[in-house]
Design a protein that fits this description.
Blueprint lengths: L10 E4 L5 E6 L5 H10 L2 H7 L9 H8 L6 E8 L7 E9 L6 E8 L8 H15 L4 E7 L3 H9 L3 E4 L4 E7 L11 H10 L2
Parallel strand pairs: 5-6
Antiparallel strand pairs: 1-2, 2-3, 3-4, 4-5, 6-8, 7-8
The structure holds coenzyme A (COA).
Coenzyme A (COA) binds next to helix 2, strand 5, helix 4 and helix 6.
């Protein structure tokens, strides 16, 4: 059963350009690839994804990123199914808030050369479905206050913008009631807005 949180979900999908993609759970064996792919992210993508945007992922941050239970801490990978070694080109994750268990911090990242191909949408679709199945109805994410234009556009896309960690805003967006409404949802509009940043 796909909705059994203990069972890893693997989905095979085809992008609009015909590329085959597998969406699968992140596993400890992904450690080396995660390090390598982080090194391939552009400075802009890093800054949008990681407020602190370190030059390299530290062992501690890697431990943290790989620490998933696929229930309260979910991480899924999009890999190119037809290429040798099925390289990972995108990752999406959420971490449930301890103080507010129906809310989770969420992030989606796609390698720059593969952005705009529909991979972020695939990952977000799966992430939202998993979140809804696990009782989460709101995603939050941090954005630096200095990104004034982006914050204005995120507000226009339906996100609530509030004070977050020092130096950053916390954006908050409701999830749709069912995953099939994703493309009409605020969370999708928010991802599109960041995608075109
Ligand atoms: C935000 C992000 C995850 C989107 O992933 P993606 O794979 O590019 O998204 P998709 O291809 O599914 O595109 C979704 C929409 O975003 C917009 N978009 C994505 N990439 C774009 C680009 N390069 N130029 C213009 N618009 C773009 C488009 O409106 C697109 O809609 P369309 O399918 O109707 O064309 C990706 O840009 C990314 O990793 N950015 C850096 C990290 C980040 O900011 N993460 C989000 C915060 S945690």
């Amino acid at each position: 059963m796909d909705d059994d949180p203990a069972r890893p979900v693997v989905r095979e999908r085809v992008l609009r350009d015909g590329t085959g993609v597998v969406v699968r759970p992140l596993v400890p064996e992904d450690r080396a690839e995660l390090t390598e792919r982080y090194g391939q992210l552009s400075a802009l993508s890093r800054r949008l994804r990681f407020v602190s945007a370190p030059e390299h992922l530290s062992a501690r941050l890697l431990d943290h990123l790989l620490d998933v239970d696929q229930h309260d801490r979910v991480a899924i990978v999009a890999a190119l199914a037809d290429e040798p070694g099925a390289p990972g080109v995108g990752i999406a994750r959420y971490a449930r808030r301890r103080d507010d268990p129906t809310t989770a911090e969420a992030a989606v990242t796609v390698l720059d050369p593969h952005q705009g191909r529909g991979i972020g949408t695939l990952l977000l679709t799966e992430l939202v479905a998993m979140a809804l199945e696990r009782g989460i109805d709101t995603f939050v994410a941090d954005v630096m206050w200095e990104n004034h234009d982006l914050l204005d556009r995120l507000r226009a896309a339906g996100a609530e913008v509030m004070p977050g960690e020092p130096g950053s805003a916390s954006i908050r967006v409701d999830l749709p009631s069912t995953p099939d409404r994703l493309e009409r949802s605020r969370v999708y509009q928010v991802m599109r807005t960041v995608g075109s940043a």
